[in-house]
Amino acid sequence: MQADIRRLGATAHPDQYFGTCGDLLTGEVWVLRVPGGGFDQAVLDGVPHFGVTLHFQDVAAPREHFVELATRITETDRDYWAAKGVTIREVRVAEDGTGVSVSTDQADAARADILARYGAEVIEVRPVR
């Protein structure tokens, strides 16, 4: 069922879809999405969910938005950060839809600059471990 929701979200509602997570023991699935539009109803109408409780969880932006931000940080702005002596090692999209986490060797020194450039969608700047 989660695969069906992912497929529906990615193909028909990419402007709303973020992700899913489920609990097999309780028979619950959470659909993380930007509220509004027709995605919720499309899931209810188009994805069989007998015996499963669906929960719709609000997120600020669709997954694609955060993937684009991660790409901007790691690829588009690579030279910008290199000129400042900052090596961005990894950017991960948070699975709860809250933003991205940036890993760099220069986390303490670069944190303020990274947050200033990308704003609150960067939820964490952490050292590489």
TrEMBL record:
This is Glyoxalase.
